[in-house]
Amino acid sequence: MAREADFGLMIWDGKSPGTVLNVLRLAVAGKIAVLFNVPTKDVINIKSVDAWRNFIAHCSDELRRDVKDRATPDEWQLVEMSDQPNFLSAIEDGPSVSNAKKGSNEADTYSPTQLLTLDDLVAALNGALARSDAPAVKETLGRIARDHGMSQVARETGLARESLYRSLDPKGNPEFTTVLKVLSSIGLRLEVKAQKAESDSEPVALKS
């Protein structure tokens, strides 16, 4: 169903694991799902795997077990990624956008209530690269790709969506070619700069 559908509109009884799993499959395919929870009369819009993880985290243990029993190992691996540090904690030590624009070396942290723009994410990615923090680089790049639309990134790079999700997880191991393709598809490029030695930036006193 998820493969054929353009989007999902589900009426949920609040306990059916099959419906919840179909929502995940739509999210993996980069498609929007609208879930109407009959018992609570809530309407839930799920546009990404991250949003689905947040949804399932608030469900009962019994439902999560039932979904796990029905899911494939690859699908459930996406669920277990939620046990990793979330995006905000991964970039907590990175420079803020305001400091990046000012050229400051001070490190601020993002507030969980802040709306992260593309500039925020690029600043976080640059901060992770500067710290040689490989897991944060992969997770941040994955977040940018998901916001851009993983289905579109998959089409433009010629790579499978599921493969991209796994590669851009903190525990993933993407090939360098994959990283370059993803950056290109979302309109970014990797740039190398020489690191100045302290002696280059400090004046040298000449002895008389």
Please, could you describe this protein's structure?
With 208 residues, the chain is mainly alpha-helical. It folds into 2 domains: 76 residues, no CATH class; 99 residues, no CATH class. The chain has 12 helices and 3 strands. It has a 3-stranded mixed sheet, with helices on one face. β1, α1 and β2 form a beta-alpha-beta unit. α1 crosses α3, α8 crosses α9 and α9 packs across α11. The longest helix is centred in the C-terminal third of the chain and has 15 residues.
How would you summarize this macromolecular structure in one to three sentences?
This protein has helices at residues 17-28, 49-57, 61-70, 73-80, 87-90, 97-102, 118-130, 134-148, 150-157, 161-167, 176-185, 198-201, and strands at 8-12, 33-37, 42-46. With 208 residues, the protein is mostly helical.
Structural class: mainly alpha
Number of domains: 2
The rounded Rg comes to 21 Å
Low-pLDDT runs of 5+ residues are 82-115
Separation, N- and C-terminal Cα atoms:
82 Å
Shape: elongated
Q: Strand order within the widest sheet?
A: 1-2-3
